[in-house]
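User: Can you predict the 3D structure for this chain?
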Amino acid sequence: MNEISNFANTGMPAVPEVQAAETMPHSIEAEQQLLGAILTNNEIYDRVASIIKSQHFYEPVHARIFEVAAARITKNNLASPVTLDAFLSDDVGLRELGGSAYLTRLAGAAIAGFAVRDYAQLIYDLAMRRELIRVGDDISARARRADVDQDPKKQIVEAEQSLYALAEEGQSDSGFKSFLSAVTGAVNMANLAYQRDGGLAGISTGLIDLDKKMGGLHPSDLIILAGRPSMGKTSLATNVAFNIAKAYRRGMKPFDWLFNGNFPAKTIFVTFDANFTTNFD
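Assistant: Here is the predicted structure, written as structure tokens:
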């Protein structure tokens, strides 16, 4: 709160500063200047909405300001120091910082539009670091506590789940895309299809009928191969993997992504070895 009080007294924008290790990672200045940019130009919210949410702000007052501003902007209403003051006039934390005068100073500390995504990414990264510290402290506390119902293996599984959930949170690459970037991507995909034998935009599975229906394998695709036991799922997946490896030849691409939890490694290797001895040129 002292950092915000200094800003409230001076009203001058400061260079974003990441705080020392003895405190939780945060940058009050980055939060202030990003909020100021949004309050002076509501279109900036669209540029950062895919990166940060209100929970990523370290200062609770800033989180509430961002939440109210986001709610108004998504409804095509103006979010400015004047309009937000009507919704935050009863906020105790904002009142301690100066109320409407603090909102006005935020607008005066706005950064240029070209830098907003960098500031938003900084705020998001610091929030992830804080959450990682919290998860680490929680894992450490559970490990130190002797609990009959919490055996080490269960604690490891819970720790993995917590870290996985943290890793999956917030994908900053998603969000609005320009029409130009979409068209460019489509043209590049068509060009790849033209250059490849068979006219496939993706990587061929080596199975003609499957390629015709799927157009090959593409990055970020999630393909689920389902069926009853002993229906040939593993054999099909192994053949697809072998065909891709064969197409790229040895040493041109790493081939280490094959995994199956239902079959032992030796069974998969026997299937792969059979393909290797009979089909590889």
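Confidence is low (pLDDT under 50) at residues 251-260. Residues 224-279 form one domain.
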